[in-house]
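=== RUN LOG ===
request id: a7f3
mode: sequence -> structure
chains: 1
length: 269
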Amino acid sequence: MNNREKLITALKGLVVGGTMLVPGASGGSMAMILGVYDRLVSSVSSFRKHKRASFVFLALFAVGGLLGMLLFAKPLLKLIELYPMPMRYFFLGAVAGGIPLIFREAGVRRFSWRQPLYILIGIAVVALIGLVPVGRVQSEMEAGVLSFLLLAVAGFIAAVALVLPGISVSYLLLLMGLYDETMRAISKLYLPFLIPLGLGLLSGIVPTTKVLERAMADHPQPTYLIMLGFMLGSMAELFPGIPGWPEALLCLATLAAGFLIIWGISKKA
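=== RESULT ===
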């Protein structure tokens, strides 16, 4: 990996890290759109086979991701607070812009009745996640054994959303009642909260990526189409409703901008 590739990897991590902070927006989807998703999965699940290369790649991506979270946490929340509708439409456009890439990765050349079925399975999974009662898991930002264990378990659960495209880790944290506390902990670098959550994430990422790598290798088309369903299902969660006039013009502009930016990036991925 030359210096240019290292810089690009870190920058992609920066974008994915910032995306993960938005409820409804998926870091996995952004990683797939940026053309780095398969490399991430294989680097984690097959780490022992290529230790040095995998470590360098994951370290650069992780540093970029953490920097993205720290840099974008407050600005993103401020933009969403000031312009909620246009920002949601921007993210809708961004997700839609990545759909052609998923079809390309799935290798869809001829129509089959199984293809829409796989997509519907993915949409159904996201819909079922949305039925989870909000706030079922609660945790205070205080040190303690019980708090540590609860946060580690929450991190393990969130790891699935972190790995799978279309399932937002931020939205899952919101469902577990941990989103606001996580955002505060990130902005304040509150380690007693972040460390157990991070350990849970790490322990959940490895088994999830191993299963996913095997699925992509043995059954690529069903796997990618189910992940496309995840992405389409996440669009329903992102949809903020029909804007009023004249905000509708701004929303259309941000929708188009999100689509064109990600579509252009995914064509080069």
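=== NOTES ===
Residues 134-141 have pLDDT under 50 and may be disordered.
The first helix runs from residue 3 to 19.
=== END ===
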